[in-house]
Amino acid sequence: MEIKKASKLGVKDNAVFLIATDKDLSLKNFSKEEIIYIKKELKAEHKQIEINRLTSVVYIVLLDKNADYKAAEKARNAASTLTSALNKAKIKTVSVVSDLALTSAFIEGIALSNYQFLKYFSDKKTNTLAEIKVIGTIKASGIEELHNTVNATNYAKDLVNEPQSFLTATQISKEIKKLGKEAGFTVEVFNKKKIEALKMGGLLAVNKGSIEPPTFSILEWKPKNAKNKKPIVLVGKGVVYDTGGLSLKPTANSMDFMKCDMGGAAAVIGGLYAIAKNKLPYHVIGLVPATDNRPSGDAYAPGDVITMHNKKTVEVLNTDAEGRLIMADALSYAQKYKPELVFDIATLTGAAAGAIGHYGVVGMGNAEEKTMAKLKTSGNNVFERIAEFPFWDEYNEQLKSPIADLTNLGNGSGGAITAGKFLENFTDYPYIHLDIAGPAFLHKPIKYLSQGGTGVGVRLFYDFVKNY
């Protein structure tokens, strides 16, 4: 979808007028009769009003007077309702006319809700809406930024929606290279031989059951004018498909959508794309360990002890707790950059999804409180809200093993937290862990959030780094 600035509204242009009150209506845009009709509809508490002018269709959308993050989310939701109407009317181009502070959120809602993943349909029922023209006080630079960020989010959705028959660990690295070339960030990919040389025992163990080799991708955006001397590092879980391994997933239908287990990797890839494409003045590195997790004859087994990249040993109690193993190697590798701050993001635990559902992201960590506060602000800004869980050291008690340094599974309640505490054992820097098991993949669309991959994390990372 194209989003671009326009200077004026054509007589026959399909248009959307955003208003906060009926005082925003002008005879310049509407006839007296139309204004009477619109005010009548507003009085009836209708927030989306349609006027068919025969040569064009005009919509009036009532948004909140306030411009806080809750109002912005209502604007995105209102936009998704409008998007359905525009496609039903087979409209290809629409002009959004507005000077409201919520304009950007509204346009974002249109663009995100218009997303489709049609690659594997033989009969592609493509949405007609293809272009948004923006008329108002919003600057062209702001529109370009929004366009790039929406594209980044939709690329992340594409990656999550791809089946593992296409998106192997090798293929995800190819997709990263392609997006890096487009956005301007550099990419280095380690093959299995290099991963073995680095002794990434977690990634190699999870990969043992696969006929496909693992990859480890390094994405880097380092502008000449970087404001941070030490990089921010983003680590994304890249399990392209998860059967649970020999600890085969027992829950009915639980494997049906496990192509989404690389949602964290998609968030990092999309985040780097948006950051680089919009040329943010910060040094940011992305790390994506990738493999699938299968129960073949050579698969790692419960009871195995593996040696990780940082030489710590882990007793495997459950092969379905595999994401933390590949993430631990990546977090250990991140130490070489002497980072200022590290995030990891992963579809890691059913416990996180069970705790808060799809309504937000579970976060925890040992970074300064002000850093977590900034992340929560970004979470509100893009409405990927952070539910902060405790990160008390007592949870480490559940990770003690009688034969190794750690186990890969807690033995009590607080499963989302013990997963985070496991990962902390492979860090030596300020660290925040994000569990997106709930919001990464939806079985039906919810407002502007797409069915399937949602791209959660992309806009969160972008907003955080932009305001860093």
Short overview:
The chain has helices at 32-43, 69-88, 103-113, 140-161, 169-183, 192-197, 201-207, 263-277, 323-333, 350-356, 369-382, 415-424, 458-466; strands spanning 2-5, 15-19, 48-52, 57-62, 93-98, 131-136, 186-190, 215-221, 232-236, 238-242, 284-293, 305-307, 313-315, 341-346, 361-365, 386-388, 406-407, 431-435, 441-442, 452-453. The chain has 468 residues and is an alpha/beta fold. Helix 3 packs parallel to helix 4, helix 7 runs antiparallel to helix 9 and helix 9 runs parallel beside helix 12 (415-424).
Structure in words:
The chain is of the alpha/beta class and 468 residues long. The protein folds into 2 domains: 2-135, 3-Layer(aba) Sandwich (Leucine Aminopeptidase, subunit E, domain 1); 151-466, Zn peptidases (Aminopeptidase). Helices cover 34% and strands 20% of the residues. The chain has 13 helices and 20 strands. Strands 7, 8, 9, 10, 11, 14, 15, 16 and 18 form a 9-stranded mixed β-sheet that branches. α3 links the parallel β5 (93-98) and β6 (131-136). α2 (69-88) packs across α3 and α7 (201-207) runs antiparallel to α9. The model has no long low-confidence stretch (mean pLDDT 97).
Features:
468 residues, alpha/beta, Leucine Aminopeptidase, subunit E, domain 1, Aminopeptidase, 2 domains, six-stranded mixed β-sheet, 20% strand, elongated
Blueprint (SSEs and pairs):
Blueprint: E1 2-5, E2 15-19, H1 32-43, E3 48-52, E4 57-62, H2 69-88, E5 93-98, H3 103-113, E6 131-136, H4 140-161, H5 169-183, E7 186-190, H6 192-197, H7 201-207, E8 215-221, E9 232-236, E10 238-242, H8 263-277, E11 284-293, E12 305-307, E13 313-315, H9 323-333, E14 341-346, H10 350-356, E15 361-365, H11 369-382, E16 386-388, E17 406-407, H12 415-424, E18 431-435, E19 441-442, E20 452-453, H13 458-466
Parallel strand pairs: 1-6, 2-4, 2-5, 5-6, 9-11, 9-14, 10-11, 13-17, 14-18, 15-16
Antiparallel strand pairs: 3-4, 7-8, 8-11, 12-13, 15-18, 19-20
